Predict the structure of ATP-dependent DNA helicase RecG.
Amino acid sequence: MRGCQGERIVPGQRPNDIPVTCIRGVGPRKAALLGQSGIETIADLYDFFPRRYLDRRIIKPVSGLVEGEPATVVGTVTKVYRQHARPGHSRLNVTLLDKSGELELVWFRSVSHVSAAVRQGDTLAVHGKVVFFGRQRQMQHPEYERLNPDAHGSTEDGDDVSALLYTGKIVPVYPSSEARKGAGMGPKGMRGLLEKAFTLNPPCFRENLSEKIISQYGLLPINQAYRMIHFPSSPEMLERALYRFKWTELFYAQLFFAIRRTALKEQNRAVRFERSGLFTKRLYASLPFVMTEAQKKAVREIYRDLRSGIRMNRLLQGDVGSGKTLVAMFAMALAADNGLQAAFMAPTEILAFQHYMVLKKNEGALGLRIGFLSGRQKAKERRDVLDRLEDGRLHILVGTHAVIEEGVRFKKLGLAVIDEQHRFGVLQRKALQDKAGSPHILLMTATPIPRTLAMGVYGDLDVTVIDQLPFGRKRVVTRMRSERQKNEVLAVLRQEIEKGRQAYIVYPLVEESKKIDLKAATESFLQLRDELLPGLRIGLLHGQMRSEEKESVMERFRSGTLDLLVGTTVIEVGVDVPNASVMVIEHAERFGLAQLHQLRGRVGRGAEQSYCFLLHAAVGGDARERLAAMERNHDGFRLSEIDASLRGTGNVLGKEQSGTMTGMKVADIVRDYDIMCSAREAAIETVEQDSALSDHAHDMIREQYRRLCHERFALADIG
């Protein structure tokens, strides 16, 4: 990057090559503060977008001001006087006059600064909230601008506001920090800085979309979009500028997915599952119920992939209890019909063992041989499983991350099923994907991804949605209750247990936290057993217990020898007891919506009415909104959309897992779904015409794509 001498800029010099110190008034101290926000060049400054806008196009007469509403007024200063209330404390009063009346301006802070800047006879434009004191209209600490004393002409007072930064315009408001505010670079200072930058070096970025795309989709050229995002000439032009930047961000995300999908189809050949045979027929014949239409559709889509000869890379998503495991069983049965093995990996031993028990129950009827592998097995038992796996005597291996450890060898792995896939690290998923020559991959999640997010987050995967619950399921009655109402909740719990049902109570922590005042499951277990619910058979389950201890407690609960299971969020997945009808969640405000919905999904699995109580401390804001959403909504997809809007979408393309997607400054893949559809259409068309982006017309797209994808999408091909 070149230095700067006396603001002499070479005509046409790229903003990336011009340091911010070229702007008059930006010395080393201000440059260092800007650098803390990632602003080192003029280009960085242009990429520092406003967080909101104020509409100050309408200038009101004093007589038309409404109490409590913000307004913009232009008038002449007729009086400036300072009052001293007590030593060290003063107030500044300024009287502003227009043709309709007087407005009193008051400052209690920065009195010396304002009194030095504002003088009698000045013409000011002021912006602030109006308050009335009797018949007097007043603004306290308004923003103000002095009109250009050399200007002539356009307001009722004969003053020109066209040259002002903050009056008669749509005004950008920039993100701020205390350090930058102290250096005169708060929101107002940043507006001035941008104005100087535009005067010094108007945007001359190289276009990052092709002329065809810009014309076809009616997009603003890049440099005009930069000007309109910072200095919009109208609401319509601001909207078009925002649209351009959102569209571009979403286009490159979708371009990545489109290129990757093409590469997968061209490069990732996989074994073709030619036929359905005895195992599939036995599974279908053994079903004691009718599959939902959504389950049948899911099986058809998966079978189509498995028979294509191209490696399946499909996400199966469905709400809690929608029957995803059965769909996966059909895929694994088809693998066995074709002489291939299947791996079924789950994130916890409880969940893995639960899947194993469900499959094992059908082993005899189906004729499938199923093994279980965990990190805590005895050496002899583990060796037996590994031997049977390696010589092909096992059709299906169920396990945790132990499935991907060294020494685990399949004879012929054809299908890998990964349950609750978001709970595995990307490298763990890749290790299973790389085993035995690129097997077909079926990812499953019981945490529904919003329909609006699936395209943006998993655009390179085929997505199957099971959006029906099995017939006969009753909705779980969900209620928010304060801690003061806990005894009422426990009374309902006891009544249900006396009817022969079972219940859960879930806590967020295992032991007392010094930082957060939450009950620990271990402490509360003793209180429930000895004081609050005496006579009930209560078990404790938490993440710090040994594997065999957990399984012992779970088996007692499954068999009905425990009435109540008290635990931490280890209950969230893997616990399937149809007789359980009450879920009590302590400190529910500490959980995200996805967790709350998963916990609620542990009940309502039988024919009886079930209940979920959200016990909470005094809450407000997002926490109360989450709990209220749980009361109102039972659709996991709707809840996940609400969760995404509250918590951010996450950067599933790389290593980050919370907040907004990396690189998305203005686009939001929930709110801007329609824009994403348009960008996706363009991305797919571009790749269909030129998958290597080698055409001269795509030079700019290729250059931008390579830069973005190298930085942002390095781990996205892990599945």
In short: The chain has a mean pLDDT of 83. Residues 278-308+323-445 form a domain with the Rossmann fold fold (CATH 3.40.50.300). The chain has five domains: 15-52+177-200, 58-167, 211-267+665-718, 278-308+323-445, 477-633. The first helix runs from residue 28 to 36.
